[in-house]
Amino acid sequence: MKFLVFIFSLSSTLAVGQIDCVNCPPLSSVPLPTVTLPEVLPSLIDIKKVSYQRRSSVKHCKRPIDLVDTIVLHHSESSSQNSPQRINSYHLDRGWYMGGYTYLVNSPYRGESTPASVVTEGRPPELVGAHAGTDAYVPMRPKDKDAWNAGQILCGVEGGQFSPDSAELIRTKIVGGQRVEYMKANVTTIGVSVIGQYFGNAPRFQPTSNTLDMIAKLICRLQKENPNMVNLRVHNNYHPTDCPGNLGKASNLSYIVQKAQSYGCNFSSIPGHIKISTRINP
User: Fold this and answer.
1) In angstroms, rounded to a whole number, what is the distance separating the alpha carbons of residues 31 and 11?
2) Neighbouring C-beta atoms of residue 13, cutoff 10 Å
3) Residue with the larger pLDDT of the pair 25 and 263
4) Are 156 and 162 in contact (CB under 8 A)?
5) What is the pLDDT of residue 280?
């Protein structure tokens, strides 16, 4: 009986609302711990992902994305109304694995309201693209050689074994009596293509500030994700072509670089038609 009385007395004393704390401050004055949450940066521009057809039997290559230091600007030389899937179909018709560009930009011509402004991922960034030119090569950097020797740049077909393929990606030339190794420019670049054609003097073929701003936001986002991407180039820096038309004018490239800088990124650019690669035929 005494035991039961003790339990009843103890439970009554500890009942909710009955606990007395003489020296406790009011709850509102108790300092709460400061919790620092990781900063979440807003995305400069959204990148849409879609499904594409592929030729699974066609050889393609993989590379570490941190080898990429250059973004190459193109135009698709097609209707501005074309979808990324349609561009992919054009490239499939050439016998390629899939579309050769890593990113595609839809943006209306001057004075038009369609198509909707959107950026879409094309060939996945970890795959070597098909855009700078099949015969465009650049000198191998030490990091390229390290990745090659470590077996990190591999070629193959879907469902098969991937392996190094020097016949596909590496060339050697004697320059000034020295043996120089070159790597296909596609390995260290990604291609960004604005869907449409930008040849000619007509106002509609001059890129709008919205189009140039979309490019600036895209390349800045890519640089923030991969700080090694520091160069902006155009197709005709690598290959004898007029691509990307008016997009490659020095004034437009300067505008893109300045806008990217306003978003916190720094790029170097070279005007169109200044050769920076070596053409080496198989």
Assistant:
1) 31
2) 10
3) 263
4) yes
5) 85
pTM: 0.84
Please report, for the chain, the start and end positions of each structural domain, with discontinuous segments joined by +. Answer: 49-139+185-279
C-alpha 123/C-alpha 88 separation (Å) is 9
CA quadruple 21, 26, 27, 30: dihedral, nearest 10: -100
DSSP string, 165-202: -HHHHEEEEEETTEEEEEEEGGGGEEEEEESS---SSS
At the top level of CATH, the class of 49-139+185-279 is alpha beta
Extract long-range pairs of 196-202: CB within 8 Å, 24+ residues apart.
196/75, 196/76, 196/78, 196/79, 196/80, 196/107, 196/109, 197/75, 197/76, 197/77, 197/78, 197/80, 197/245, 198/75, 198/244, 198/245, 198/246, 198/247, 199/77, 199/242, 199/245, 199/246, 200/245, 200/246
Structure tokens at 54: 């592929």
Q: CA end-to-end span of the chain, whole Å? A: 102
How long is the chain?
A: 282
The tokens for 53 are 């057809």
Q: Are 189 and 129 contacting, i.e. CB atoms less than 8 angstroms apart?
A: yes
H or E element that contains 204:
none
